[in-house]
Amino acid sequence: MIRTLGLALAAAMGLLGVSTASAQPTIRVGWTIPAEESKYWMMRRPDQFPELGKSYKVEWVQFQGTAPMVQAMAAGALDCSTQGVLSMAQGAIQANLQTYIVAQHVGEKPGSFSVYWAVKDDSPIKTIADMKGRSVGINVFGSGIYGPMALLLKRHGVDAEKDIKLVETGFPASEDAIRGGRVDVGVLNQPFAARAEAKGGLRKLFSLSDQQQNIVHIMDVCRKDFVDKNPELARRYVRDLTAGMAKALANRDETLKVVSEVTKAPIQVLDTYLLKPNDFAREPGAKPNFEGIQAMLDIYAETGMLSKKLDATAFRHPTIVAPLE
Fold first, then answer.
1. How many whole angstroms separate alpha carbon 110 and alpha carbon 268?
2. Do residues 80 and 30 make contact, with C-beta atoms less than 8 angstroms apart?
3. pTM for the whole thing?
């Protein structure tokens, strides 16, 4: 994380000269993998966006997660970045990082994919109550998916802090952790869930949708001071995020190619889930689901992951928010 932040800061310092020397304003944007198709379109098909590279530029900086991007934004090394609801809120509380939510990438709705926990087919664990005394996988400690999971377990008489052993597995290695016995119950996310399901031998135990139907996973946020000082630049960026989401949803075949170029995942693997019913939900025009964001903030406050309650509307700019055309 420290190395990543250092790289981001170095990139930002280098950009100072670029921005002043060029007539085109530059926006520094953090991104990660997966599920940022609107950004991937902007990165790999810039000719499809009339203003991108002409009236403004984007300096893309890749990160391995949202928490390092919070640090980079707080340090002034990024103008905008991908964020989870929890990481954004923690940045606001712990680092006084004031941001606007300008767009949304993926979430969960009825009928879409929902992050779930699975066991081996022959596991004696049949219900959530059976998880007492068992090892349970999570992608990372302090993850945004922990809050809804903890509340769901609590409803079934299981204390997530006392009754289970939480094990950090990461999403890519979670399937192997289940099959190899490192954890009794493991978490699955796309595209790893599709891969595991194709192999068989695992059984879904519960999903986040069992606790909450309206979930927001990742959004795009910009620093408040940046937007307030550069409203037209921010509008151009949000207009292109809006257009990027439209292109991603309208042309699945090309989106498969774009995502494959960025993630290096084979198209045949992506084709098993990407933009299908077993994928996450995407809002038309990249519109932020502020109702869902508020629900997530409330869950994090209830479970103690946030030290105080926050109002989602405080993160909303009156005009600079997707969809913008």
1. 26
2. yes
3. 0.83
